[in-house]
Amino acid sequence: MEKYQNFVGIKVRNNSLLNKQIIDKIQGFHSMSITIEIDYSRCTGCKKCVETCDYGTLEWFEEQPIVANPISCSYCLKCTLNCPVNAITVKK
Ligand code: SF4
Ligand code: SF4
Predict the structure, then answer these.
(1) What residue owns the CA closest to ligand 1's atom 3?
(2) What is the number of helices (H) and of strands (E) in the chain?
(3) Please, which of 5, 29, 52, 88 could form a disulfide with 78 given CB 3.0 to 4.6 Å?
(4) Could you state, in order of their start, the residue ranges of all structural domains in the chain?
């Protein structure tokens, strides 16, 4: 339980039923966490991943894509499907 106490800014003070429900929700959310990796040695800078991401997860920064908001990722996989050189990996 300890590791979830400050997750996404929610603080849990005691073991009341309400807090248990909150913890269950957070744990469920946490178990769905998504990892996005960009292999910059492959990336050609075509920007297609950023243009196809509808959730603001990827942003363009200093001529390359970055994972700016990983928590917003919907796991739609559009970025991986649209990357011509398979430089993006998205895992649950
Ligand atoms: S999987 Fe979908 S939401 Fe997540 S970064 Fe790729 S395009 Fe964006
Ligand atoms: S789609 Fe692939 S090659 Fe194009 S900018 Fe994104 S990661 Fe780089």
Answers:
(1) 73
(2) 3, 4
(3) 52
(4) 1-32, 36-92
Count the alpha carbons within 13 Å of 31 in the hemisphere toward its beta carbon.
5
Q: What is the pLDDT of residue 33?
A: 87
Per-residue model confidence as pLDDT tens digits over 41-79:
999 999 999 999 999 999 999 999 999 999 999 999 999
Residues 74 and 34 sit within 8 Å (Cβ to Cβ): no
Contact 49, 58 (CB under 8 A): yes
Architecture of domain 36-92: 2-Layer Sandwich (3.30)
Q: Ligand 1, residue 88: give the atom nearest the CA.
A: 6
User: What is the CA(76)–ligand 1 centre distance, in A?
Assistant: 5
Task: Give the closest residue to 88 by CA, choosing from 57, 62, 63.
Answer: 57
Q: Does ligand 1 come within 6 angstroms of the Cβ of 83?
A: no
